[in-house]
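lol forgot to send this yesterday, sorry. struct tokens for the thing we talked abt
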């Protein structure tokens, strides 16, 4: 009744989302305190794992749970008093805000719960993945720089990338999903889940430890990783994607073939190029990328066959491989050449015009 009354009095302060619970976007102290007083997040006690630590951290980024008490218990009666429960309780039900994934019949993935994202996300969800599924977009919006609000399309892109690069790993490790069907040649033991696990007291430790306080340390650890990853994709990765898209759209201004891109600086572009080629239906027509490496140094790089491949779509002119400086300028009949790599994947010239001529000559070879 109180919530409905406040809605009528202050409709502009509220928003609803089919995939997130109802909460105010206002930062007003009085309204938020009135609505969110004594909120409780429930999770299990004892040894903690990365998934519920991360789930609790993400929830506490949201206005409705910012000041919530974290109740660590397996007592079902105490869990009933919690407003939201993660990783315990043997119930998954979004409507009642219960997010356990340990039930025998539980098999949900991000793709099964959010089919509009596509069918590529097939790792069984942990409590972190469940919370991210329903609240991840709100979490990202909350921690994103307020001076440049994310548009809906960019938010969707960031949401998927953070899942792929960060959350999916937590889900897989917690659910015991192996990285490969074969025995790996070595094991990674320094991942985030392992570092969170190490905060738990050792089995033979005689020291008295307040696990609730250690849980807070674990939340701080995951917060640093999550915030870095999310802010990287918002502030570094996304602008690079926009830069590549712009270069693709203006590629015919660089050369009439449309097969040469130009960047005015060095930055990570390969992943974006392959993603955008697929989205824009371009196939693999782009063969070379020009970029300014440093003053009086331009590079022409052959586009690889895939982002991690050493094989290229069309290598730089074979006659130049392993040749440098004046000899390369003579062989190529292009002034100011600096080098060509012995495998033909990259070359250099002192000027933008020279690098472009190297790309065009290689294209026509």
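and heres what i got for the seq, position by position
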């Amino acid at each position: 009744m109180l919530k409905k009354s406040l809605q009528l009095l202050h409709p502009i302060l509220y928003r609803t989302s089919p995939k997130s619970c109802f909460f105010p976007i206002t930062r007003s102290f009085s309204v938020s305190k009135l609505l969110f007083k004594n909120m409780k997040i429930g999770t299990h006690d004892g040894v903690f794992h990365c998934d519920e630590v991360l789930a609790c951290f993400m929830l506490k980024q949201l206005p409705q749970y910012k000041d919530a008490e974290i109740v660590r218990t397996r007592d079902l009666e105490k869990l009933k008093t919690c407003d939201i429960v993660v990783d315990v309780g043997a119930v998954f039900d979004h409507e009642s805000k219960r997010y356990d994934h340990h039930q025998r019949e539980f098999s949900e993935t991000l793709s099964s719960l959010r089919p509009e994202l596509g069918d590529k996300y097939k790792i069984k969800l942990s409590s972190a993945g469940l919370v991210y599924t329903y609240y991840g977009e709100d979490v990202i919006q909350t921690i994103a720089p307020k001076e440049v609000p994310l548009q809906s399309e960019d938010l969707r892109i960031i949401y998927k990338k953070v899942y792929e690069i960060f959350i999916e790993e937590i889900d897989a490790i917690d659910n015991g999903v192996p990285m490969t069907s074969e025995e790996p040649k070595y094991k990674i033991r320094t991942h985030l889940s392992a570092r969170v696990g190490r905060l738990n007291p050792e089995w033979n430790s005689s020291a008295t430890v307040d696990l609730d306080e250690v849980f807070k340390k674990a939340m701080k650890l995951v917060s640093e990783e999550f915030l870095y990853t999310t802010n990287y994709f918002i502030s570094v990765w996304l602008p690079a994607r926009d830069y590549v898209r712009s270069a693709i759209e203006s590629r015919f201004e660089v050369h009439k073939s449309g097969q040469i891109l130009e960047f005015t600086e060095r930055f990570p572009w390969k992943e974006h190029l392959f993603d955008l080629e697929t989205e824009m239906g371009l196939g693999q027509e782009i063969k070379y990328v020009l970029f300014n490496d440093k003053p009086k140094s331009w590079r022409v790089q052959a586009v690889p066959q895939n982002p991690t491949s050493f094989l290229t779509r069309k290598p730089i002119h074979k006659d130049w491989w392993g040749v440098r400086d004046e000899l390369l300028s003579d062989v190529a009949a292009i002034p100011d050449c600096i080098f060509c790599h012995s495998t033909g994947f990259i070359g250099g010239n002192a000027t933008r015009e020279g690098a472009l001529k190297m790309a065009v000559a290689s294209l026509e070879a």
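The two ends are 76 Å apart (CA to CA). anyway ping me if u want another try
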